[in-house]
Amino acid sequence: MNGPHDMGGMQCYGPVQPEKDEPVFHDEWEKRALALTVAMGFCGAWNIDKSRFARECLPPDFYLSKSYYQIWIAGLERLMLDAGLVTKSEIESGKSEASAREVRRVVKGEEMLAALAAGGPVGRAPSTEPGFAPGEKVRTLNIHPATHTRLPRYVRGKTGTIERIQGYHVFPDTNASGGGENPQWLYNVAFEARELFGPDAEPGGKVMVDCWGPYLEHA
Amino acid sequence: MSHSKKTGHDHSHWSDMQLKVNTLESLLVEKGYVDPAALDVIVETYETQVGPRNGAKVVARAWADEAYREHLEKDATSAIAELGFTGRQGEHMMAVFNTDQTHNMVVCTLCSCYPWSVLGLPPVWYKSAAYRSRAVSEPRAVLGEFGVELPEEQKIRVWDSTAEMRYLVIPQRPDGTEGWSEDKLAELVTRDSMIGTGFPDCPGGTR
Question: What span, in angstroms and rounded, lies between the C-alpha atoms of B109 and B138?
Fold first, then answer.
């Protein structure tokens, strides 16, 4: 979806403002927002791609004006509502009004360290050969799906060179929209800065972008 | 919960958020979807255990041990796991090495993907629209906003984390550190130097 999250190349957000000796969290609620988002991910009612898409679908003015953890909480609410885990009225009251839905997994306190350390690898056993080889010239497709995609706008319809084959990974475009993991070869593609951003870009500069096979064609 | 009050740039929205998140937490605990003890473990892990000191150990080992550096170059995920750093947002790692010719810098233009297992949670600026938008199109200007100036002949490679690959920048080893122990070297490694928006500290003071 061409939404406000797809920020590469925008020029309207002013200078970066690094914060000296920044704390890990700026407020107590941010800690709980992180913890709830991570813990609810284990329920199995959605996957990481669906959770990214839920945040991308938030109203643009909200997305652009709220902090990261505010966006996370709003995304989490949307995911839980869509999955039928909670109702709007329960979110407002904080009180359960109906019995809980069955979920795949509730990680207990004593299991959480191991669960975090295990992570969620997305590499799968390949069932095909890679369609592109390092050094090969490729062009990204000029696609504009209204659903989730990880091909940023600034890099669509552009020519680059395969830098490296990264593996055979779950394909977010289908995984976010109910189409399953549908794993695909993932390639790191090197683009010349000038190919992406025109003659004012620095000569010799490169942008390296991970692209799944379905985003690419031979150039 | 009432939201009748408009919250501009005052701080009242912070307490609104505290209330909102508390309310949500008690609902999810009551429903049995989360264990409160597990929530505490998550906070404790990312507040005190998993952070940029992890990445600094990886960098220091790469500086001190040529065989480790080669391992890291070939298979960063396994080389980093060897030091005990695995898990969420570090499942698929790649190390990118700065040289006199190339400076590497990492961004996620589409959200805020960041190598948690080695750097912890991302700083606010990394998640900001300003960084996410301009890191790819004008990296040298963005670096200037961090006070980082590179020689013109050093070309910039920006890594946009569009997939589940996570990138760790291995900065160049500072001069004057010959024979230093890994522990001592690790103290020089700053978080920003591993994102590519800073340098390691210099022996005897910051660069």
Answer: 13
Domains and CATH numbers, chain A: 28-118 (1.10.472.20), 137-218 (2.30.30.50)
Q: Would the pLDDT of B45 be above 60?
A: yes
What's the pTM?
Answer: 0.95
The secondary structure of A129-141, three-state, reads CCCCCCCCEEEEC
DSSP state letter for A161? E
- In one letter, which amino acid is B101? Q
DSSP H/E element including A150: none
Name residues 59-88 of chain A within 8 A of B (Cβ).
64, 67-70, 73, 76-77, 85-86
Residue ranges of chain B that CATH labels 3.90.330.10 = 50-195
Distance in angstroms (rounded) separating the CA atoms of residues B31 and B21: 15
Give the number of other CB atoms < 10 A from CB of residue B149. Answer: 10
Active-site residue among B12, B26, B78, B111? B111
The C-alpha atoms of residue B188 and residue B127 are separated, in whole angstroms, by 25
Q: Does domain B50-195 have CATH number 2.40.480.10?
A: no
- Give B206's pLDDT tier (boundaries 50, 70, 90): low
3-class secondary-structure state, position B165? strand
3-state secondary structure of A115: helix
pLDDT category of residue B9 using cuts at 50, 70 and 90: very low
Ranges in chain A, pLDDT < 70: none
Inter-chain touch A152–B110, beta carbons under 8 Å? yes
